[in-house]
Amino acid sequence: MGSPGPAASVMSREEADRALARLTAEREAIESSLLSLQDHAGRRLLEGAELTGTTRHRWASAEHTVTLLWTQFDAYGRALARAREIRGRRRWPNRDELVELTALLRGEGVTVSGGTSGPAGGRLAERLSLEALVERMNAGYARALDVVVAADSVWSALPARIDLLAAELQRIRSLAGSVGVRPGEHPAGDDLAEITTELTSLRAEVISDPLAFWLPESGSSVPGSGRPDTVRYDRAARALEDVRREIDAVLGVRQDAEQRLARLRDVLSRADRTLAEARTARGEVLAKIASFDVPAVSGPPTALYEELAAAAEYRRRAQWHRLSPLLDSLEQRAEDELRRAREALSAVTAPLAVRAELRGRLDAYRAKVAEHGLADDPFLAERYDVARRLLWSAPCDLRAAESAVLRYQRTAVETLAPRPDPADRTGGRER
After folding, report:
1. Is the confidence at residue 1, as pLDDT, over 50?
2. In this entry, which stretches build a coiled coil (predicted)?
3. pLDDT in tens, 240-258
4. What value does the CA radius of gyration of the chain take, rounded to a whole number of Å?
5. Parallel, antiparallel or unpaired: strands 226-228 and 289-290
């Protein structure tokens, strides 16, 4: 038993009583903690699991620590019981008893097995004071509790979430199969296969090595401070959500495919009719207008009709995953084809529109001249007849007709412009 040292360091009765009370309270607290750890759900799971990796290594160390803690607790209890036995001999202990109490309560009077916390072992035995032993037990308890709480937190959080995601995955796989989205046939089907493999692997790894998915809180000394690492789970959840949106889009195609195909047929039919009208108009323009470049008109959109037939076949065979992108492409190109047909019609009928505008302008200036009583002016009449003959002849030389209209227009403007009175000019000079 350790010596208390010089006489001055011997505890008084009051000091011995206070130390005994404090150390007894410590024992009760440690016992409660150890029993709580013994009954912890995470500890029972760890004991029954087939562990791998980080968790297997850390749990082996924690189990050794727990065994050592109970051994140290028993030694602590025996030393404390010996101190209580000495103190209980009499109300006023003598000096020898106080010296012995001091050695037990303050000195290194407790012999415990080696202080290493790992299963490899260390020193065979060492002597500690009760205070130092309390500190060592608290530190060992914190290490063991950290392993248990961390593993329990991961097991409480991730497997259930993975199972829910797996159930959603199964639902989406069923929907995907109903619209022909399968591995090897559609990218989304390949994605579903990869997500299935990842979730199966992730769950197995979480069960066997939960501490590999634990992120401890930096700088915290509280056991179990941290959170589960959900990076892989979150990545799988995002990938599944992307696939779900794609499957929903394919399902939407299945629901409104017939309407979209009907709209496509209508757009292509209008483009066809517009092109036919443009070809007819071009023949009319070539017959009626001379010296004017008339653009050629393309034939019907044969390639689009072929793809439309393929889309209808996809719908008949319920190949929705193939129909979806084809409809998107066809809708855009059909609208482009209708726009080009309208532009072609406008381009080929432009000369007729120009001729109509020149005719209207000629008649408007003729009416204006007549309002001023100049309809019989021989010069104006001559220019009007030239312009009118050019505009109403077939084929019409549009450039010559435009020049004739402009000449008549300028002549009419000059003729109708007011002329100053000579008397006004003479009067101005006299003044």
Report:
1. no
2. 13-40, 240-281
3. 999 999 888 878 777 888 8
4. 51
5. unpaired
Mean pLDDT in residue range 213-231: 89
How wide is the angle at C-alpha 204 spanned by C-alphas 203 and 207, nearest 5°?
A: 85
Are residues 307 and 376 both part of a single domain? yes
179 and 312 co-located in one domain? no
The model's pTM is 0.60
Q: Are residues 390 and 367 in the same domain?
A: yes
Same domain, 188 and 79: no
Q: Is 60 within the bounds of a domain? A: yes
Regarding whether 169 and 146 lie in a shared domain, the answer is: no
Residues 6+ apart with CB under 8 A from 184: 190
Sign, Cα dihedral of 233, 239, 244, 247: negative
Output the DSSP codes for 52-80.
-HHHHHHHHHHHHHHHHHHHHHHHHHHHH
pLDDT digits (tens, 9 = 90+) for 312-330: 888 887 777 788 888 888 9
By the 8 A CB rule, do 281 and 346 touch?
no
Residue whose entry in the numeric block shows the structure tokens 């050019």: 390
Range of the domain at 89: 13-114+124-150
Number of domains in the chain: 3
Selection from 222, 212, 223 nearest residue 158 by Cα: 212
